Amino acid sequence: MNVPPDKPIIVLDPTGERRPATRQRLDRLQSLSGITVGLLDISKPRGNVFLDRVQERLRERGVEVKRYRKPTFSKPAPVNIRQAIASECGAVIEALAD
Amino acid sequence: MIPRSTAPPLPSGIVAFVKRDCPTCELVTPVLAQIAKQASLTVYTQDDPGFPPGVEAVDDTSLAVSWHHDIETVPTLLRVQDGEERERTLGWHRGDWEALTGVSGLGPELPEMRPGCGSLSVAPDRTAELAVKFEGSALRARRLELASLEDPNEAMFDRGWTDGLPVVPPTEARVLAMLKGTTRAPHEVVAVVPPDLVECTVEKVAINAVMAGCAPEYLPVVLAAVEAACTDTFNMHGLLATTMPVGPVIIVNGPIGQRIGMNAGRNVFGQGNRANSTIGRALQLVVRNVGGGRPGDIDCATHGNPGKVGFCFAEDEEGSPWEPLSVHRGLDPGVDAVTLFPGEGPRCVIDQLSRDPDSLARSFAASLRALYHPKLVLGFDCILAIAPDHARVFQEAGWDRARLSGRLFELLQIPGQELRRGAGDMAEGMPEGKTGQALGLPASLAGLTLPKFKPGGLLIVHCGGGAGLFSSIIGGWVSGAIGSEPVTREIQP
């Protein structure tokens, strides 16, 4: 069956419908203890200033911090950065800026 | 049957269905005017509300009236009384039209008869859209609108609906077409699916069957497989959760196997046959999506096996020297059936030299003994899939299934001495003392023999290609009340 490219496709839910149709966010962390927090700089001007301060505050609380930087804010993060954050961190803070 | 939206009522009198894009409808235009003068006539027009000229027509460009009243040809002429259709004639035939309308002398200048054209309500490029329009309300599953920039396949992977392979997007039109494969109502509950114990309707099975790639005529097999898998006896929950490499194996018996083009011959466990590949996959998608049984979650298999994507095949009944498996398990011959077996991947038994049934039985027994561990007995059932070349050895010697089963049972009596833990310098083995007694074994195995399989625990199936002196072993999971028993279920149309 051909679906015109500009027409949204409607599918029927194959599941037991025990979860909401929209994808759910992960549960909010109860504590930062033992968690590595990733700080993602999207390469907008002065985003680093904000993240430097966040890093300082987190380190004061004894939280492990790792920094990441997208090559450009205008495109989604490359796969290697997403994979690194997913495998190395328990939470991520992404800084918008300007 | 799929419930339809309510049919628009027909007016009493003579009712005609026409379209401009039909030479026969053009031809009968003066006839319709003639009838309108002498009888109560209602004309429904499918493509052009201004057609036919000279007669006031009812606009049926939505095709609602044509579709609900199963109009397949235009022109179609009906005689309706009290909202009920009494008579119907297709195309133009003077005698039939005169008889139906009671008006004589119709279209004197017209030929005696002329066949009609296809009704727009059954046009191949309209049927899917019309089914969704008029039957779509019968579907109760939640609709998800994927964004126009989303690739449907990626969207379905992201939602965790797949087994890692691409699936066919379950659109309303495809699910309605799938539901035509069964006479069962979409809302009928087929089973309660573990592990989440969710009631699963025919419609939900159809959605997953679409995704798996099934054709509608496979749906009855999938429904029977879901029913059989979700019984306490089969214990799908335990089968999912086990660390052993087993999953549901579906064996199809009865004429339906050939009817839907299943493979019972060459490469029977392999790739390449749509029905074999997709029926087993549909069951696994139901377990995954409806029941919530997912690898890495409740599915704790250490290795699993590639058949857990889906493992389904038909028995070769035509070439078999024996009664079909389903008949052996109590159903009547000729009844369509599935047998669900909790199985691992198949392994081959080679014996290219035995022409004597006892020699071949010994080869089978020696190979079967090694299943899972040569020192573990009675814990597991097993399928022995015998290929035609091997079956012929038994057939020519006049061995029926019972004789072969009986001989294998004798040959698989193993001295307890060899099975004891530590025997052969292997720690693994059958327990003795209290541990053994808890499993129903004698306190000591000394001087005893134990059978590899419990009586009836070895299922013999005839399948495979016509060349190759091979058979195949499919090991089972823990048998009995603490594990799983094979389940045979009749397939309903």
Structure description:
The complex is a heterodimer of chains A (98) and B (493). Chain A has helices at residues 47-60, 79-88, and strands at residues 9-12, 36-41, 64-69, 91-95. By secondary structure, chain A is an alpha/beta fold. Chain A has a domain at 36-95. In chain A, helix 1 (47-60) links the parallel strand 2 and strand 3 (64-69). Chain A starts with 8 loop residues before the first strand and ends with a strand. The relative contact order of chain A is 0.24. The mean pLDDT of chain A is 86. Chain B has two domains: 13-136, Glutaredoxin (3-Layer(aba) Sandwich); 156-412 and 452-490, no CATH class. In chain B, 30% of the residues lie in helices and 21% in strands. In chain B, strands 13, 14, 15, 16, 19, 20 and 21 form a seven-stranded mixed beta sheet that branches. Chain B has helices at residues 23-27, 29-38, 64-68, 94-101, 127-135, 152-158, 172-179, 202-212, 219-229, 236-241, 256-259, 274-289, 325-328, 357-369, 388-396, 401-411, 416-419, 433-438, and strands spanning 13-18, 41-45, 57-59, 73-74, 76-81, 84-90, 92-93, 113-114, 117-118, 143-146, 189-193, 198-201, 247-253, 312-314, 337-350, 380-386, 413-415, 449-451, 458-462, 470-478, 487-490. Chain A binds chain B through residues 1, 3, 5-18, 21, 23, and chain B through 128, 139, 141-148, 152, 156, 158-159, 161, 169-175, 193, 196, 198, 200, 203-204, 207-208, 211, 285, 289-292. Strand 1 of chain A pairs antiparallel with strand 10 (143-146) of chain B, so a sheet runs across the interface.
